[in-house]
Amino acid sequence: MSDTKRVIIYGDSIFLSGIAESLRADSGLKVVEIDPQGGKINLETSEPDVVVVDASRTSQDQLAVLMALFRSKPGLPFISLDADDKQLTVLSSLQYPAVSLPDLTQVIKSYFTTLPNL
Questions:
Q1: Cβ-based neighbours of 19, under 8 Å, separated by 6 or more
Q2: Alpha-carbon distance 40 to 18, whole Å?
Q3: By C-alpha distance, which of 57, 48, 46 is closest to 17?
Q4: 75, exposed or middle or buried, with CB in 10 Å at 0-12, 13-18, 19+?
Q5: How far apart are CA 50 and CA 105, in angstroms?
Q6: How do 78-82 and 87-90 pair as beta strands?
Q7: pLDDT at 93
Q8: Which residues, including other chains, have CB under 8 Å from residue 58's CB and lie 6 or more apart?
Q9: Which among 23, 26, 32, 24 is positioned nearest to 51, based on CA atoms?
Q10: Dihedral sign for Cα atoms in the order 16, 17, 21, 24
């Protein structure tokens, strides 16, 4: 079993594109970008371990897609990034200070080592 975590970046902001490129530098993460204009996240083909969204750029339609996904796969963590407040929120309501990309990378990796296998 591989330790590589599949990260879906759901959004089309420049901020998320930069995050995706930076996360790709980590060999423990497989990053897939999905443009919300393209529709839904296919769980069968993408098999995500985590979904990352830009809090400031999530529309009501995108939020509806994410909530449907959340209901269809309980336990799938969502990370909402807020560049203005330098915060990230894991949908489990945990918040972490995030001032750098290494902070985000550490949260993604540690999430899977500190919680039960989902």
A1: 9, 52, 81, 101, 104
A2: 22
A3: 57
A4: exposed
A5: 12
A6: antiparallel
A7: 40
A8: 11, 66, 80
A9: 32
A10: positive
**How far is Cα of residue 30 from the mean position of the Cα atoms in its chain?**
12
Coil, helix or strand for 96?
strand
pLDDT in tens, 31-76: 998 887 765 666 567 788 888 988 777 667 777 777 777 777 767 8
Q: Residue 104 — φ and ψ, nearest 5°?
A: -60, -45
Q: Token pair for residue 51?
A: 């979904």
Report d(CA 84, CA 5) in Å as an integer. 27
Tokens 């995500």: give the residue. 48
Share of the chain above pLDDT 70, in %: 78
Residues 58/35, Cβ–Cβ less than 8 Å = no
